[in-house]
Design a protein that fits this description.
- The chain has about 140 residues and is an alpha+beta fold.
- It has a single domain, classed as Alpha-Beta Plaits (2-Layer Sandwich), CATH 3.30.70.
- Helix content is about 40%, strand content about 20%.
- It contains 7 helices and 4 strands; from the N terminus they run βααβααβααβα.
- A 4-stranded antiparallel sheet has the order 2-3-1-4, with helices on both faces.
- It is globular, with a radius of gyration of 14 Å.
- The site of adenosine-3',5'-cyclic-monophosphate has 8 residues, from loops.
């Protein structure tokens, strides 16, 4: 059965700052993802707080929101069969130290905060996150 899905991907400030945008996009395309929509933006801290609201009780929430709003990011809608899981696999573990060879975070991540990419963690959150950035 075909299970075409869309997921939201963000290339985070640490990766945009190091000009890794194209290399990371090539990794997605190499794994068969279509980039349906994309835009480079810088968001306000208040928007980052909304985006990461699920983490609001976590000790790292404030730093996380400061960080995501600290510089330009690239937000993309990726499409592929089972895109949500496939993107999580391609990104690798949240902490680059734990990420496997061949993953984006292993290759480019600097730390658990500066881990280069964000990806939706479920189909349900993918819809919410895509709407967050691309609702017309
Ligand atoms: P991301 O996939 O964007 O989702 C939330 C982010 O919080 C995560 O990537 C990490 O960059 C960041 N973060 C910082 N500290 C932690 C932590 N202890 N556990 C999980 N995520 C963390």
């Amino acid at each position: 059965m075909n299970n075409l899905e869309q997921t939201l991907s963000i290339i985070k400030p640490d990766a945009v700052e190091r000009n890794l945008e194209n290399e990371i996009k090539e990794m997605f395309k190499g794994q068969g993802f279509l980039i349906l929509k994309e835009k480079k933006i810088q968001i306000e801290k208040s928007e980052a707080e909304k985006f990461y609201k699920v983490h609001e009780t976590k000790p790292f929430y404030n730093d996380l929101c400061d960080y995501l709003s600290s510089g330009p990011i690239v937000v993309m809608v990726l499409e592929k069969e089972n895109a949500v899981l496939g993107n999580r696999e391609l990104m690798g573990a949240t902490n680059p130290k734990d990420a496997q060879e061949g993953t984006i975070r292993k290759k480019y991540g600097i730390s658990i905060d500066k881990n280069s990419v964000h990806g939706s963690d479920s189909v349900e959150n993918a819809k919410i996150e895509i709407d967050f950035f691309f609702k017309d």
